[in-house]
Amino acid sequence: MGDYDENTAFLGQTGPYFWTTFFLLNTVFVSTGFNGLYIVFVGAAPKHHCLIPDVNLTEQWRNAIVPFMVVDGEEVRSQCSRYRLDVVRNLSAEGFIPGKDVNLTNLEQERCLDGWNYSKEIYQSNIVTEWDLVCDNQWKVPFASSTLFVGYLVGSLISGQLSDRFGRKKVVFISLGAQCVSVLLQSFSHSWRMFCVMFLFVGASQISIYISAFVLGTELLSKTMRVLFTTLGAFLFYCIGYMTLPWIAYAIRDWRTLLAVLSTTAVVYIPLWWFIPESPRWLITQGRVEEAEAIIRDAARKNKVEQQAMPPSKKFTMLDVLKSKNIRCITLMCLILWMAINIGYFGLSLNTSNLSGNPFMNCFLSAITEVPAYIVSTWLLKKCPRRVLLSSFLVIGGGVLLLIQFIPRTLQYVAVALEMTGKFGFTMAFSIVYIYTAEIYPTVLRNIGMGLCSSAARIGSITAPYVIYLGTYNKVLPYVVMGSLTIASSVVNVFLPESLNKALPETVEQMQEFYSMNLLMCCYAPGLWFSVIVYEGSQISN
Fold this sequence. Notes:
- By secondary structure, the chain is mainly alpha-helical.
- Helices cover 66% and strands 4% of the residues.
- Among the domains are: 48-118, no CATH class; 320-541, Growth Hormone, Chain: A.
- The chain has a two-stranded antiparallel sheet. Strands 2-3 form a two-stranded antiparallel sheet.
- A hairpin with a 2-residue loop joins strand 2 (68-71) and strand 3.
- It is a multi-pass membrane protein.
- It is found in: Membrane.
């Protein structure tokens, strides 16, 4: 292929073509923010207790039939048990007064045999209230969350292959349509099983949108615009959708209506098919040089410059990632990083409904915390080595989470503030690892490499709901697990090749040429990692 950036340098670094493509592609990411985390509201468990059927009970016994228990120092009604109804009915009929004539602690308890009574203070209905996903069925909520991330895993594996075969643009728009249909069908789910199956398709289509659009933007835009797109652009527009979600959920408290409304947002993307071009880099790898030149010619016309010819190239597959020992080494480290970052990022995102305070405001705060992270990362990525940045924010995110366990229960606002600081660190790491990975892999393997890394990330995100579920046993356990994994992964990052101020590699040979020294250190001299940090620290100071 040669050096694509050099061959298209005549287009300039900015201009109408690049800015138009930049904004049109970024709007696609808004839909991923809408549909990524609605399970926070759809799967939230409102306050509940055993439903008491309409039987002959005095008002005193009706109020006393649900026992009280102490949770985190606060006396609350039991959510999963009640005093035996037949016993209470007899005591009520005989005129006994609870707590005065009868010692309630001696009464036998039973499960909520008649179902539950749910508070409608926050949610009118969701999957928890509709299918009674509480108590013995509580595990079904994190399982439903995990099916979304299993879909992410499937989509990550499939989308890379499909976009390398059929094109980035086609996969983006087919995935948008698939996401729309999946969310709409999910709103008509008649059972928890159907909800989970449709959630898998939602996840597969959503991650296909994200990866394919991300790679498409990386390959379409100039070197200057690429950094802006892969940090402030893609992630900020995702965050716009994420920040809007809690307000839509606040206005629509019924889960079926909420999902139906979210599904219709994909319709606005139909006209973009005629304005977003295919990746010329991909077209060249497929031998479709004339089509690539037509796109370059259009870009030259819009930027008012003269066009030059483009050379052809060969096709590559996923096996090419495994052929080279150096690329295998890089890929393994990237997989570990993506997995750890996703456990922390999605773990904190899914945990917002469990924090003290209003769940809609907590979700909004969690989303808005990402905005300064994306802005700061955009500025830092222009000046600082990727390895130092990524390791630093992994340590910050993980370290803050480890501190939460030492915060007294009386200082809940401090714990929330620390959690948002952790979210800031994970968001920074999330945005950095995306562009870092895209810069490491050459054009011929970029979409495949991103797909593999995203697949590993889905293993992390599939695990995230269960990490949060550990909080039912001990509230600090999720933070200890997420913090420890993140800090451990920061060490792995040190041995990845640096990509700052290097041209985006086009071929496997260019990738190996650029990073041979780093890879030798990665594979054969891991004891030198401290020297790398010292060296890159001097680069920042210079």
